[in-house]
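Appendix B.2, paired examples.
Example (i):
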Amino acid sequence: MSGFFAPDSLVLNRKLPLWYQVSQSLRASILGRPASAPLRLPTEDTLAGHYGVSVLTMRQALKELETEGLISRHRRHGTFIEPAALRGAPVRLLGSVDAIVAQQSGERATLLGPGPATVPVPAELAEHFPGTAEVVRYRRLRFDEAGEPVNWAENHVLPELADRIDVTDLESWPMVKVLRDRVGVRISRITDTVEARLAQPETAALLRVPLLSPILHYTGIVYDESGRVVDVARIRYRGDRFSFTVTMEAPG
């Protein structure tokens, strides 16, 4: 592909979705591009042929990059790298829903406040709940076996699903497990983001850490099989009680 900087070949791992592998290859090329590289990408057909995948697979890979803000797509004009796409953009890792459930399980949780509350969709979450005016918010504080607080979580759930949630399940199960195993939501994917932040007054008090001390802020966006967001979780972890380990398999 003349003028393009993607690798000459990509060994695809059958254990991972093709669209994900292609999107990550393209992502690495975009973030590592030389200053002289063109901003316009080849056509979907050309890219699909280069990677040896279907046009539908390539389209899904490009949609992922568009959602991340690395590219923009313009009908009849083509696909372009966003000039503001920087090398410091967050890395996305693929795992299973079961892995996320396992990571969030095993901790005792206490509901904060009087219980679930119906609230207006927070402005910063509005893009995830288009056409929805209100969500049901759950707030929980989790403890380890020694009784020390390790994180506190907020979940914003669609009201029609919240009506079927037994809050006692949330004392021992993460929300994603409750939605999947109790409510019957067919979860298709979860997008996770972990950021370093400073503890604000409420977080500092709940987690028993100094004000403005480092914490890890996790955001998990849960999608059902139709692509609809059913839950957005925001979890604040004590920086001294949380580690993030990823195991990557090399293609055979």
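Example (ii):
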Amino acid sequence: MTLNNKPRIVVLGAGYAGMMTTKRLIKNLSPEEAEIILVNKHNYHYQTTWLHELAAGTINQNQVRIMIRDIINPNRVRLIYDTVVKIEKDDNRVILENSELTYDYLVVCLGYETNTFGIKGMDEHAFFIEDFDSCRLIREHIEYQFAKFNNDPNAHESSLNILVGGGGFTGIEFVGELVEKVPKLCKKYDIDRGKVKIVNVEAAPSILPNFDKDLVTYARKSLQERGAHIMEGTRIHECTEEGFIVGENNELIKAGTIVWTGGVTGSSILGKSGFDLTKGKVTVHGDLRAPGYNNIFILGDCAWVMDKQANRPYPPTAQAAMQHATTCGNNIRALIHNEPLEEFVFSDKGTVASLGVTDGMGAILGDKKLYGKAAATMKKVVDDRYLFLLGGPKLLLKKGKVRPF
């Protein structure tokens, strides 16, 4: 216990899981019952499911970013803007770059890092859709390539090409934004649209491996009809300064912008802190606690939460992270009051992928499939629901995608 005898709860990371856990703790516990501290690298929160739009330049960066103190009352929660270096879990201590903290209960929501699966040159030559700053850089780089092409008589057409490695959720949503953004850039810089190639490379036999076959067929056709080149079953051997070397013939696909979206892993802080990892994440108990540590909860992209019936982890999605937060907030309250803990049960609301501003596909309410504008609208509704849960009507009106008028 801390000096004032109130248990101290430290939440690491202000992503979906961290923000919603903090909100739940505020609701579950009075200021007299516990001290709550939220630690984050930046003084803002952003929706990771909007990053592909920021990277393509189809959304205003100010819409993506939310100041933490606008959502979390700093008089109720101590906000610390610092970088986590290591968790010393046997001493109940967190080492930060500029200070350190002790805790009674720890919630680890440090998010994901890009996983390049050891592909040679990917770390050196590709951009990553990883955080707010990295996506802003991608947007600026793409626009720079168009501006430079117009002003440099020696510029090669391949410098306009955009190469996207990975045909999973993020990669395909990013390509969906690009097929809408590129024609606008061509018009702005007076460049023939035919000179710009958008190429998606996926090693698996199909893009979007976790989606229903009909939905995948729709997505593929939609993107191809709008000018995207999709290469499935094509392995990337190496990423060079010029592009990807792919396939059995070691073909070089040249591009001025190379973006890798092919995989993520949990924060490297987990490994540095000595947690037992499976593919970069901690397999937590059903109550979301780390094995061997009754006061440490691990949520979101840092955790594998097992679906015991299917004997596999639940997909690490934003909706899962938000649901982790509810269970975690309830369980910390239960621990403080010596009450029984609850097991996490995932309630699948469905998954919708955007394929640009007015197109999309997905399934909701079990197996109801949505296509086109209906899916695109549902995706915006899902995004807006999170804003409402996070900050109420005020935040929804300020940052929401579906405008009431």
